[in-house]
Design goal:
Blueprint: E1 9-11, E2 32-37, E3 43-51, H1 54-59, E4 71-81, E5 83-85, E6 94-99, E7 105-109, E8 120-121, E9 126-133, H2 136-140, E10 147-149
Parallel strand pairs: 3-4
Antiparallel strand pairs: 1-5, 2-3, 2-10, 4-9, 5-8, 6-7, 6-9
Length: about 160
């Protein structure tokens, strides 16, 4: 995998339009289990990479050409704040699930546009963002208000 020099996410800092540059190394992490419990009573499990620092969040899923259906990436921001994501250098169309600190899904940006620099805002302060393959949320009936279960939501 090629290293990235552009940031994968942008914290929504007032009037700064903050974009930091990072020189990333090849990205590979151990997978962790994450589940989503729908309001309809269904539970779906995924194996996720967790991006816990600026460099990992900046790299995200950039330059990847595929991702297994049962996998995703969880962006742990470590604090609750409005965030904006983008798809620059990301070839996969994704569903972005913006998650509150209690694990409930605040918003879903479905079928994001690959390689776009358009920002995708959280709409409210969130602790994390889960990226899944495009269409997965709709296919599994995942909606705002559903609960994501992972240790970062038990702090």
């Amino acid at each position: 995998m090629r290293p990235s020099v552009l940031q994968r996410f942008r914290p929504a800092l007032p009037a700064l339009g903050f974009v930091a540059a990072f020189a990333g190394a090849a990205y590979a992490q151990a997978l962790e289990t994450l589940s989503i419990a729908t309001q309809g009573g269904q539970k779906q499990s995924f194996r996720v990479e967790v991006a816990r620092n600026d460099a990992d969040r900046a790299q995200g899923l950039m330059f990847r050409r595929s991702m297994p259906a049962d996998q995703g990436m969880l962006f742990d921001f470590g604090r609750v704040e409005p965030v904006s994501m983008w798809m620059q250098n990301t070839y996969l169309s994704l569903d972005m699930l913006f998650i509150r600190p209690d694990g409930t899904i605040a918003r879903i940006a479905a079928n994001t546009e690959p390689l776009s620099t358009r920002t995708i805002p959280s709409g409210e302060p969130v602790l994390a963002v889960l990226e899944l393959n495009a269409g997965m949320a709709g296919k599994l009936g995942i909606k705002p208000g559903d609960r994501v279960e992972h240790p970062i939501f038990k702090r």
